[in-house]
UniProtKB/TrEMBL annotation:
Organism lineage: Bacteria, Bacillati, Actinomycetota, Actinomycetes, Kitasatosporales
InterPro entries on file: CE2_N (IPR040794), CtCE2-like_dom (IPR037461), PCW_deacetylase/CE (IPR052762), SGNH_hydro (IPR013830), SGNH_hydro_sf (IPR036514)
Residue ranges constituting the Carbohydrate esterase 2 N-terminal domain according to the UniProt record: 2-85
Protein's name in the database: Acetyl xylan esterase
Domain SGNH hydrolase-type esterase: 94-245
Taxonomic source organism: Streptomyces regalis
Length: 307
């Protein structure tokens, strides 16, 4: 999540209410502050040259159990908040789990405490954010760590899945529904869900056989693609990412959509060659995110996007 604005003058204040997440503040393209669980505050960046500036606030990590508030940018005395930047023509939505969030991607060790995970997660250098910037697109990263399409990591929280939360604006408010203001019309949606469904063996007591889990995954994935198609229309390209154990299942879902006449659903195999998985708990490192972004950007460049 990020907010962009324009101000004139020698300083800018960022009005925040968040005791759980971390943020970067960027002025004129340079990170000038990292705010660690800032709480209720107006954080000031002073000493700027007395001219126009671009300012960007980016949320670094995922905190689905907490509500964050952003109260806007304010100008220092003598300055002014200017009209908002022009929205980019391109929009991309990324849907996924902790690998899409950028979980622990700045860590120097695979062994991390929960606090270290929070401090070393930076969604702004995840493969999705990097891909969007390469393509000069506005973007959403709708990632939720630990959740899968039908089964969560190690069978945890069996009463919910990623799909439980997708429609919500506030993840910690059951029944909440995000109201699209009409300005979010992504030409491209990238779905990367399946690692948590299949990365751990089914435990005794879970309602799955291996074949049953695979069948349920494919069925739910197909339904989710249809949900996206209904939401965004026939003009949106949906890229379904396959990797590891779930690659073949995603490929089957895409083939079924294509056979049914929906040529706007594309399959992309995430090639993990050259990745070091040096992030926390064997997640992508920042290096890996750059590699994946370059490969995904190249794939997207070959699609008939028409943008």
């Amino acid at each position: 999540m990020y907010f962009e604005g324009r101000v004139s003058g020698t300083g800018v204040g960022i009005v925040l209410g968040d005791s759980a997440a971390d943020y970067d503040v960027q002025v004129d393209g340079t990170t000038v502050a990292t705010l660690v669980t800032p709480g209720n505050t107006t954080h000031w960046i002073n000493g700027l040259q007395n001219r126009e500036h671009t300012v960007r606030l980016v949320k670094r990590n995922d905190t689905p159990g907490d509500t964050s508030t952003f109260g806007g940018f304010v100008a220092a005395p003598g300055g002014a908040v200017l009209s908002k930047p022009t929205a980019r023509n391109r929009q991309i939505e990324f849907i996924g789990d902790s690998l899409t969030v950028g979980y622990g991607n700045l860590s120097t060790s695979r062994d991390c405490t929960q606090d270290q995970v929070k401090r070393t997660t930076n969604t702004d250098v995840s493969y999705g954010a990097l891909t969007a910037r390469q393509l000069n697109a506005d973007y959403q990263i709708n990632g939720y760590s630990g959740l899968g399409m039908v089964r969560n990591y190690n069978g945890s929280s069996p009463d919910v899945t990623y799909r439980t939360y997708y429609d919500r604006a506030l993840q910690n408010v059951p029944g909440d529904v995000w109201q699209n203001p009409g300005t979010w019309r992504p030409q491209l949606v990238v779905v990367n869900l399946g690692t948590n469904d299949f990365s751990t063996a089914v435990n005794p007591g879970e309602p799955w056989t291996p074949d049953g889990l695979a069948a349920a995954y494919r069925s739910a994935y197909g339904d989710f693609v249809q949900k996206l198609r209904t939401r965004y229309g026939a003009g949106t390209t949906i890229v379904a990412v396959g990797a590891g154990q779930y690659a073949g299942h995603v490929q089957q879902v895409v083939k079924a959509r294509n056979d049914a006449g929906d040529s706007g659903v594309r399959y992309w195999l995430l090639d993990d060659s050259g990745l070091d998985f040096l992030g926390c708990a064997w997640h992508y490192s920042a290096h890996d995110d750059r590699v994946i972004s370059d490969r995904l950007t190249s794939f997207i460049a070959g699609l008939p996007m028409g943008w």
